[in-house]
Write a structure and sequence with these properties.
With 553 residues, the protein is an alpha+beta fold. It is 56% helix and 7% strand. Bound molecules: protoporphyrin IX containing FE. The site of protoporphyrin IX containing FE has 25 residues, from α18 and α24. It is found in: Membrane.
Length: 553
Amino acid sequence: MSLNLNLESLAANAVSILQPRLLAWIVGGYAAYVLVYRAFLYPRFFSPLRNVPGPPLGNPLIGHYLTIVQNESCIPQREWAKKYGPVVRMMGVMGKERLVLLAPEALQQIMVRDWLEYPRPQFMRDVLGLVAGHGLLTVTGDVHKQLRKAMNPAFSIPNLMAQTDMYYEPIEGLIDIMKAKIKAEPIPEVGRIFPVYEWMGNVTLDIICDTAFGYKTDCLHHPENPLAAAFHRLLDLQSGPNLAKLVFLLAIPGAPRASRSAFLYRHRWLIGKLPVFYGLEALVEALFVIRGISKQMLKEKTAELVGMGGGAADVSTKRDIMSLLVRARRAEFEAGRGAEAMSDEAMVDQVLTFLAAGHETTATGLSWTLWLLANDPESQRRLREEVTPVYETNPRPDYRTLKSLTWLDCVVNESLRVLPPVPLTLRCAEKTDHVGGLLVPKGTLINIPIRVINTWKEVWGEDAEEFHPARWLNLPPAYNAAFSQFSFIAGPHGCIGKTMAVSEMKAVLVALIANFEFAPAYAGQVAHPATAITMKPEDNMPLRVTRVAGKAQ
Ligand code: HEM
């Protein structure tokens, strides 16, 4: 008995001495594996991608991370593609390999044919889920197919045609405000400098809220409106370093869920106390406000539809995003599948997705178009010549009229090509696969550099990076309709709002160009595209705006 006890206590003592050592060995061994093998040896000597051309591998710990976040979006990838061709290997942190792909065949395989095997990587879904809700942008597979099917009617051509007229109330508000501000200047003839991105953000937010959710925000007249103010704060936080911080924080188990909790909102001051989290307190606050307003929109719409504010026929014919969501949920309940119906929280996520994806991208696209026109007076003059007679006949041109304006189409296509609002996206190989004859190991991150694809000299020629709307009148022989201008990508995850965005941009441009002339705010002004999810102008894009010559001041 006593021998047994001694043996047991001996064993217990041995384990308690060994355990910390064992743990230290395991942790040390794993760290050595990550640092020595994964970060250093594997990419240099063992990876099947080791012979893919690309820039020198750089620091094994951070790879090309600093080059990417410290430069303008996609510029390093563009330089590499010029030097090494349409397939480039670059390094992420800790030896994580990334492939940069431009060739149409590779894009077809990844984004269209085998899209289910190349989903958005988890960290990207976590970040998008946080800032734009867990909706179409984050789901994949069958859930994605189902949701997309439910949402498609909102973006059908007949629905968009019926919707176009709704763009004009905010647009007319914008024109009146700009006219009044110019008139109030000491010398109205020299115009006024407008932070163009801010105004484009207000008008597109008003448009999406009204068309998608039947909710009047009037951010144009009330920029202090809580929704507009929260979006401004959120967008101000968009930057490469902040994005990297978010990716890092959301990798902590449980963090994606915690980031949406009311508890975190109530204790956000705690985040503010830690310098490493700088900026995230404001993010949590802005997201909480946006979620709250989305909830309110949902509540009002449900009450309107269920309480028959509109009447049965109205309920079944309404095709705005919110009505479709409410109706899809009701159909699940009526079919006895209440358990599968979207929860309130999931519905709010969908609202958030369309709010975020549907307004800031379009605002960024409009701002860059005005910037490019401000720097190309001849294209601007030609556009004015085309749109003025249309605008003077009817200041609310319909969908077909907008579509029929040739030069306007060239300008919008060219602007979205040269300065795409979403400059880059990512995919992750879910299985080991061959892409263009290359063995791509499972887990490889694939970098789809939209801005580089759009300005690839092999397709667009030597002046590919320049703004020349006329090229759309005579497309180059290598042009591929699906893959040469990739601003909305292609395949099942392609932008659902593409036609709406283009039509909306055109409606805003017709009114702006018919009324105002745009020029750089000062000599030597250069563009400042942000390195973030969207390529918004970092400086709010100041431009000098004057009334069109001959119009009343
Ligand atoms: C100029 C404006 C726009 C641009 C450049 C743009 C671009 C894009 C791109 C590149 C994607 C793919 C992202 C990825 O897979 O990584 C995307 C997806 C998406 N966009 Fe847009 N977008 C614009 C406007 C809009 C508008 C107006 C809406 C809605 C009202 C919208 C809603 C969406 C949604 C819901 C998705 C996810 C689609 C899916 O995965 O099924 N976008 N957009």
